[in-house]
Amino acid sequence: MNLKPDANHPSSDRESYSIDGINMLERQVDVGCPRCADQQLRIGMLAGSKLAACMGCHGCLAQSGVLATLVRVLRGAYSGEDIDTAPINPDELHVACHCPACLQPMETHAYGGPGNVVIDSCASCNLVWLDASELTQIIQAPGDREPVAGVPSIEEHIVASLQPTRSTAEADLTLSVALAAMFGGL
DSSP character for 94? Predict the structure, then answer.
C-alpha cells in the first residue's frame, strides 16, 4: 500500500496524500468509514475517476461500474512485474461491515477477478469497499491484461491525476455534484 506525502501536488495548508495511487483531495465526505468507527471518508481521484477513501484504515469505496472501469484500464496500462498474492484467508470472509450509504450489512465475498482479495459490496447502493492495498493487488496480479487503446501507463495516470486542473470553487462544486451522485444525495 502506498501512503505518502505527494510532492507533485502541493497544498497550501495541508500535505496531499496518495493511497493505492488515489490522490486524496482536501474534502471529507459526510459519510463514515465502514471499517473505522471514528473516521469520515475523503474524496480522491484515480485515473480521472472519483473514489472515497479512509485516511485511517486506507480502504476505498467506489461505485461498482467505476471500479470495473478502473480495474480494466489500470490493469491494461500496468507495465510492471506481476505480483503473486497469497491465497484468500477464509477468516476474511467473516469480517462484516456496513454500507456507508444505506447502513445495511454489505456482502463479503471473494473478488471475481485477479488478485485473491475479499471485497464488500452493497447491491442496493451499487457500492464496493476494498481494504487497504487490495486495489493495488488487483492491478498487479498475474492474469490477462487487455490494453485499452490510447490509454497511458498507470504511472502517467497517477501523475495526471495529481495535476490541479480547476479553481477551488469549481472543484468544490464538482465534488458536491459527484458526492450527491455517488451517495444518493447524502
Answer: G
Among 68, 50, 64, smallest CA distance to 174 is for 50
The one-letter amino acid code at 42 reads R
Helix (H, G, I), strand (E, B) or coil at 85: coil
DSSP conformation class of 40: E
Give 109's strand partners. Answer: 119
- Please list the rounded mean pLDDT of every run of 10 residues in the chain (186 residues): 36 52 84 91 91 93 94 91 91 93 95 94 96 94 80 53 47 47 49
Report residue 132 as a C-alpha cell: 487497504
In sequence order, the 6+-apart residues with CB closer than 8 A to the CB of 99 are 34, 105, 106, 122, 124, 125, 127
